[in-house]
Amino acid sequence: MGEVYLGLSQADKASEVLQQALAIRRELKDRKGEGETLDNLGSVYLLKSQYDKALETFQQALAISREVKDRAGEGRTLRKIGVTYSNLKQNPKALEIYNQTLAIQQEVGDKFQAGYTLFSIAVTYDDLQDYPRTLEWSKKSLAASREVGNRFLEYRVLNLISTTYGIKGDKERAVEFLQQSLAIQREIKDSSSQLGTLTMIMVFGSKASDLYSKGFYSQARAEAPHDIKLAQDVLQMARELKQPDKEAFVLQKLGRVYYILGDYNKATEFLQQSLKIARQIKELQTETTALSLLSSIYRDQGKDRQIIELSQRKIEIAREQKDPLSEASSLNVLASIYTELGEYEKGIELYQQALAKAR
């Protein structure tokens, strides 16, 4: 029962049930069962980001696995110890533990768990920004997941491979792996993961914004209908699953595409919707991007007073995020507008504030 609550990410309920189970296992002197329960309890602490408690509990489980010569259990717990060290950003230690884990899993022929360990190694190299090794270990994990038919792991590995290619600038290959991942998620009816993958396909597969930023305006406009279709698919699912962070992000992307098309009315409509949601859920990055795009529209329309209002909000966000360079940039924009409006003293004052923040 504790494992069920753990699988549902109900950490408090899982902890309560597992503590009861642990007491029973100890009363029955069931050492193997005690070790398995401690392993699950450690997973609860890991889920709650209580890493010291997780390590302490996993070490107890590991000691029992070794005592009763449960090599498969030893490998399972070792991998979780490695994950804990990864979360603590102690990556060299994590890699050391993962290699020990892999040796045990290969010894006992546990190909299913070995796939997860290979994936953990790949994730650790990704965290270290060692992308050639990320791809190397991801592909090993992908082969292992396919060999044992672990579709859940397979799509997670495909997403990591895609992200790695995206970081390397190979967006076409990134989308190729995401499409494979999406097919699996649809097959196993994992709607939440589908939304994440569709969002990544939208990010990597949308070409209009990149082309526009490079000055290829006509090509950007030609790609816009494709990008709008991608975004609308994500938007529909985000609303169905009630994921406001994704909804705000996609609305902002749609605003950008309509801005590229020169349809300022639609662009403003989508950006205002994005801003409303982003403010409600305190999604500051999405809000900042939407504010910047709206400012560009108002600049083209000569609506200086509206830009002042938006810039003031961007300054508030920059201060909240303790980002002096962004604050200086917004102060500069504000100063230039006041100067254009003939309010020179206000402009000079703001330029001085911007200079002080930039230092």
Automatic annotation (TrEMBL):
Keywords: Cytoplasm, Repeat, TPR repeat. It is found in: Cytoplasm. One of its GO terms (molecular function) is G-protein alpha-subunit binding. One of its GO terms (cellular component) is cell cortex. Its main location: cytoplasm. This is Tetratricopeptide repeat protein. Gene3D superfamilies: Tetratricopeptide repeat domain. It comes from Allocoleopsis franciscana PCC 7113. The keyword Repeat applies. TPR repeats lie at residues 35-68, 248-281. InterPro entries: GPSM, TPR-like_helical_dom_sf, TPR_rpt. The lineage of its organism: Bacteria, Bacillati, Cyanobacteriota, Cyanophyceae, Coleofasciculales. SMART domains: TPR. It comes from the Bacteria. The keyword Cell cycle does not apply.
